[in-house]
Amino acid sequence: MAASGKMTLTTKVLIGMALGIAVGLFINLLGLNGEGTFINEYVVNGFFHIVGKMFVTGLKMLVVPLVFFSLITGVLGIGDIGALGKVGGKSFVLYMLTTAIAIAVGIGIAATIGIGEGVNMTSTASFTAKEAPALSSVLIDIIPSNVINAMALGKMLQIIFFSILVGISILMVGKKAEPVVELIEIGNEIMMKMVNIVMAVAPYAVFALLAKAISNLGLGLLVDLAGYVIVLISALMIHLFVTLMSILKLFSGMSPKIFLKKMRETQIFAFSTSSSNATIPVTLRAVTDRLGVNNSVASFTVPFGATINMDGTAIMQGVATVFIANAYGVHLGITGYLTVILMSVLASIGTAGVPGVGLIMLSMVFTQVGLPVEGIGLILGVDRLLDMIRTAVNVSGDAAVSVIVAKSEGKLDKNIFNDPNAGILTDDDLDIPDDVERDIARVVQESKNKA
Ligand code: ASP
Predict the structure, then answer these.
(1) From the CB of 344, is ligand 1 less than 6 Å away?
(2) What is the pTM assigned to this prediction?
(3) 390 touches ligand 1 (CB under 6 Å)
(4) pLDDT tens-place string over residues 147-183
(5) Phi and psi (nearest 5°) for 412?
(6) Comparing C-alpha atoms, which of 137, 77, 66 is closest to residue 346?
(7) Which of 16, 79, 229, 401 has its CA at a distance of 20 to 30 angstroms from the CA of residue 166?
(8) Dihedral sign from CA coordinates of 144, 149, 152, 153
(9) Ligand 1 geometric centre to CA of 249 (Å)
(10) Is the CB of 356 under 6 A from ligand 1?
């Protein structure tokens, strides 16, 4: 509860999540979701689908302008270009390192337990491999040949590159560019307010998204693949609560308990949308307003992390590799597994955080190490739920690295981090005071009169 006694958004989102899961389970377990039934057509794939989809689209709508404005504001606010390079370098190293640790943990746990041994490797679903992009094309692709196109397609690395360049150029123009600085800063503020508006409907949308996802889940499949599912979820939890939190404590000295508490809402968004990219506005807000990371760091580390850092996905790749290798009786050996680690880290750089992309990355890795790609069909049926969980781990990794980098650059406000009420959203945040409405109307009228 907020100080005012009103329910906070986090509480409402938690309620939405619990109700969504409950309703989804109810529909699923009672088998009410059959093809052509009223529930299937009008409730699950009608009402739930529309509400959920509208919300996720609304979040996606915010991503490009938000990243653009906040990143330019970040570059302008960082003070010197050298510091920007350091933020970039540190976050890149930490992102790659945590991803490599994640996949090694996944492989280690799965191999120790020996999952997949004795599994019947016939799969009904088929999966077609996607070529891994060459490192050279990933690098070339960072530079947009057409900015409008990059923005239209939401190409995050290209948008990051262009925004940084705009920021640097504004600094170079100097005094003359001051009106633009003001415009961009106000633009950033407006976008952050828009995040609040979209987030206000989150409790209902989270309910709809989860009710739909859970009612459609093949729960029977979960039982069939219980070994894989349990090992994967355990590895994900170990990474989130042990590895990431130890790294956070070690490198920043900040409290993992507070971090986890303040990240809960963002994790639920990631869980419900299965997309780190769509969650960017929420992660950015949590990292700056709740955890105290200065925008000059967060505006870069959050969108960058959503694109190149996927710890949860990496763990899935590790566990799935062992599982499928064992199921098909393929012996990978140390070199094979090292190639898997390297390939997964590389594959994560150029792939955006969108639903289901982990499986596509896995197919790239399999092609490289010579594992049967059709083996992915074995785990396809349970991937929807696992995608939700690993996306929550992915965004937690982005936030943890943001805190560490900010701390090391003197850009972390410890008071905000430690204040339990910092950045909490309530309905009051959406109020537009009457006098403001009147003032704005007057300004518009005056400018009309002048014209
Ligand atoms: N859905 C994940 C994300 O957006 C990626 C994946 O593992 O499929 O981070």
Answers:
(1) no
(2) 0.89
(3) yes
(4) 999 999 999 999 999 999 999 999 999 999 999 999 9
(5) -115, 125
(6) 137
(7) 401
(8) negative
(9) 26
(10) yes
